[in-house]
Amino acid sequence: MVVGVLCLALAGCTAGPPSRPAVTAAPPADPMAGLFPQIAAAGPRQLGPTCLTDREIQADLFTRLRTQMMVTGLTCAALLDRPELFTAYQGFLHTHGDVVLLVQRELGWVLSRGRPGSPDRLFDTYVTGLANEESVLAADISPVRYCTLRSDQFRTASRFTAWDLQAYLDEAWRRQVALYPRCAA
Q1: Predicted confidence band at 113 (pLDDT cuts at 50, 70, 90)?
Q2: Is residue 170 assigned to a domain?
Q3: Are 53 and 107 in contact (CB under 8 A)?
Q4: Is 19 inside a domain boundary?
Q5: Could you report the per-residue pLDDT of 11-29, keeping only the tens digit for each?
Q6: Alpha helices in 12-96 (DSSP H)
Q7: This prediction's pTM
Q8: Domain count, the chain
């Protein structure tokens, strides 16, 4: 009723309060924007002949992020003459060192389920393959374009808290789980 009285006092209107223009809210910003750059349609490398649990899939997704950050830190630091990029990657490793070790152990055992060899050595070989693929990708699309496409992902991920990292891995799992051979629940 206050709006009605105010309307009558100010404008002498008789048809009730003036209509408000429709307000359209901007869509909420995607908190994951830039974290999944569309660079190439590459599926996961073969981890072994067996299916993977959701935890093992997330371990692989973490390893992929870590490898992308490593290649970005090395490639873009040199290309753009910004050594702080590699320092940021090292900070990411330091912040999430417990996850790095856990994932290395987890994927090492996954890889050893189908291949002979030490889990640590198999993991190192796997990560080297991922890094080589990422480096070839950077060369194929041009290092400058690669650095541009990975920059948002790198900048955001290098500041991840443990909670942010888990949120990223949950979203990465949601987006990419169909690419993995999953074990029946």
Answers
A1: confident
A2: yes
A3: no
A4: no
A5: 444 444 334 444 444 444 4
A6: 54-79, 84-95
A7: 0.77
A8: 1
